[in-house]
Amino acid sequence: MAARSNTAFIESPDQVLIIERVFDAPRELLFKCWTEPEYFARWIGPKGFSSTILVWELRRGGKYRIHKRGPAGQDHWQRGEFHEIVPPQRIVRTYCWTDADDRPTRPETLLTITFEDLGGRTKLTLHQAIFESISARDDHQRGWNSSLDQLAEYVATL
Length: 158
Description:
The protein is globular, with a radius of gyration of 16 Å. With about 160 residues, the protein is of the alpha+beta class. It has helices spanning about 25-35, 35-45, 135-155; strands at about 15-25, 50-55, 65-70, 75-85, 90-100, 110-115, 120-130. β6 and β7 form a beta hairpin.
């Protein structure tokens, strides 16, 4: 009988990012801001960045690719695959930085966004893991917090 190999990953707190925010917006609207590319591009990226959605296949197994340009003209690319979309409760997708030719430049992480209805307000929980280092996690924390600030500003205009 052949031996089987099982691999298990245990998340260390140093490898995980969890951010919780409450938004003054209904859950359905917040979910729409995360799933419809014309909404998503308006707020994603740290303050001062502009984003262009290059590919957006919102379905299980669908791909996405985003180009972000920083305030000093620096280019950043990101890609991933949607694993789960449960309207308006949860989105699970991979997250990977790439170069202009779509080659990964950092290890892929798994991003899970949940939306909890608070009666006209929404509690968003962002969980991203497993990071290769504490500094990578902290860089993402700064970037996500800036993006979520922009999301709060954007939904206030809708």
